[in-house]
Amino acid sequence: MLMTEYDYDTDIAVQREEAYEDGLSKGLQQGISQGAYEKAVETARMLLSFGDSIEKIATITGLSLETIQQLEKDLQPR
Question: Of 76, 73, 74, 71, whose CA–CA distance to 47 is shortest?
Answer without folding.
Answer: 71
